[in-house]
Design goal:
Chain lengths: 111, 114
């Protein structure tokens, strides 16, 4: 089946940039997503990128997509303690039914 | 503000009990999903429904069933709970012709089976 891989844990100092990486296997992925899960809450869409794009920027967030290597990254500039959460990479192909999630990367921001 | 509401945030049940997890969305979404979330395993799809009374198995349907009698409500049923079903259960919904396919999630129901 399809697979989305990401590392389990990332620790950064407040004010630094965070980069969370993800690789996926489905070459027919249409959309790639980053969801954020704060403690005790459900997932919330943070940003997404369409598969024919290389980059998307949204305020402090930059998403880079290398379609050839099937590699997706999320960069958070000027990371704040409020950014501490679990970040899930996800890919969708064939519509909304087939969304595959990674295991989630726990971001710890050290004051 | 869009909302997916899960009826119970925390439940404790005994092995063999029947468990109902309820989910209601107020966005008139056609599609609803049940996932379970476990550390180191991420989110795994249990069942989804793309219309009233319609259901499809996800990746891990064994031990679960679902019911969708009304468009806004999607229930997950554990006929006979077992300890390996201790987990966080997340309900989600999305519009049928959504442009981006964004999933809207509830806050989760943490089930402990003793």
């Amino acid at each position: 089946g399809e697979d989305v891989e990401q590392s389990l844990f990332l620790s950064v100092r407040e004010g630094d940039s965070s980069v969370i990486n993800c690789t996926y296997t489905d070459s027919s992925s249409t959309y790639l997503y980053w969801y954020k899960q704060e403690p005790g809450a459900g997932l919330q869409l943070l940003t997404y990128i369409f598969s024919n794009m290389d980059m998307k920027q949204d305020q402090r967030l930059t998403v880079l997509l290398n379609k050839k290597d099937k590699h997706l990254s999320l960069r958070i500039a000027d990371t704040q303690t409020g950014d501490s959460a679990i970040y899930f990479c996800a890919s969708a192909s064939g519509g909304y039914q087939k969304v595959t999630f990674g295991i989630g990367t726990k971001l710890q921001v050290i004051p | 503000d869009v909302k997916v509401t899960q009826s119970s945030r925390y439940l404790v049940k005994r092995t063999g009990e029947k468990v109902f997890l309820e989910c209601v969305q107020d966005m008139d979404h056609e599609n609803m999903f049940w996932y379970r979330q476990d550390p180191g395993l991420g989110l795994r799809l249990i069942y989804f429904s793309y219309d009233v009374k319609m259901k499809e198995k996800g990746d891990i349907p064994e031990g679960y069933s679902v019911s969708r009698e009304k468009k806004e409500r999607f229930s997950l049923i554990l006929e006979s709970a077992s300890t390996n079903q201790t987990s966080m259960y997340l309900c989600a919904s999305t519009a049928g012709q959504g442009v981006t396919g964004e999933l809207f999630f509830g806050e989760g129901s943490r089930l402990t089976v003793l």
